[in-house]
Amino acid sequence: MLFEKYQVKNLDLQNRIVVPPMCTYQAQSGEVNQFHHTHYGAMALGQPGLIIVEATGVTPEGRISEQDLGLYTEYQAEKMKSFVDEVRHFGTPLAIQLNHAGRKSTTNDPTKYAPSSIRFDESFRTPKTMTKDDIARIVEAFAQSAKYAAAAGFDALELHAAHGYLLHQFLSPLSNQREDEYNGTYRARLKFLREVLAAVKSEWPAEKALLLRISADDYHADGNGLAEYQEMMKAIAKEIDILDVSSGGAIPIQPHVYPGYQLKYAKALREATQLPVIAAGLLQEYDLAQFAIESGHTDFVALGRSMLTNPHLPIALARQSGQRLLQMKPYNKGI
Ligand SMILES: Cc1cc2nc3c(=O)[nH]c(=O)nc-3n(C[C@H](O)[C@H](O)[C@H](O)COP(=O)(O)O)c2cc1C
Question: Which atom of ligand 1 has the smallest separation from the CA of 20?
Fold first, then answer.
């Protein structure tokens, strides 16, 4: 049921609707500002079960763009704390997605980092093959950002290993052609992610949920398909609490999309890992969202673009299910 509670560690979700991370490109110097307070506050008033704040860079060059959020300075962390305090006031728990964009970064920094020196396409810079020191620095940056996220009061943390960003770049043979222990088998390609998970867990409180977002298909014969991602996620399932399932982004290919197009991936990964999963991809129609959960395809539905057009969508969906979101006292009389 869409409007059923769920608890993961000390994360209490009032319903199964998750706002997935969506970059808004409104930050300067990586800092949250009035836009983020209002944007996320509006969605919090809509009462989803969880909001995952957009991809946030763990280093300056790890941001996707110059306008992305960052969490690598004390000042960014302080501003993030007042943001979390304010938005959480409306009752919805908040997660943050930590990211390093690797070869897909478009920031002004001249050096881009990647497992191998292969550019994404002609519009991107050719990245530097990461040395062991580069790897150690970025692993440590993830840990430091996790520490800041905990201090800011986030309820959960998501690592971005999807959409062709750095963690995904190590997982996929399309972008990882290293000749050291970080490549060879899928287990070797998991090494960087395992190091990041271990480092993050040294700073992120054990009682708080840790989410991992992956792409379940590289959409290329030489990349990983669902079977490879099932094996990889089985190998690390005990390290995470919720698996957030997306697809694509490893290479510039646009898959055919339609309502529920990623549900098959969510179901397959749910079965392989026995973890609670989040599915995304045009799931905003009540009947489809409800079906996705009742049929066991997924535990949570992510509503992304539909929440941008209507940040109060969960209230409308609750009405369709014949329920009121009782915590919405300011609106209940009118509704
Ligand atoms: C404007 C925009 C920004 C996005 N930014 C991110 C992001 O920061 N991190 C991420 O994992 N996915 C990102 N996504 C993907 C969404 O989280 C989601 O998976 C996708 O929009 C499909 O869900 P929907 O059909 O409900 O929109 C973004 C999508 C959009 C439309």
Answer: 17
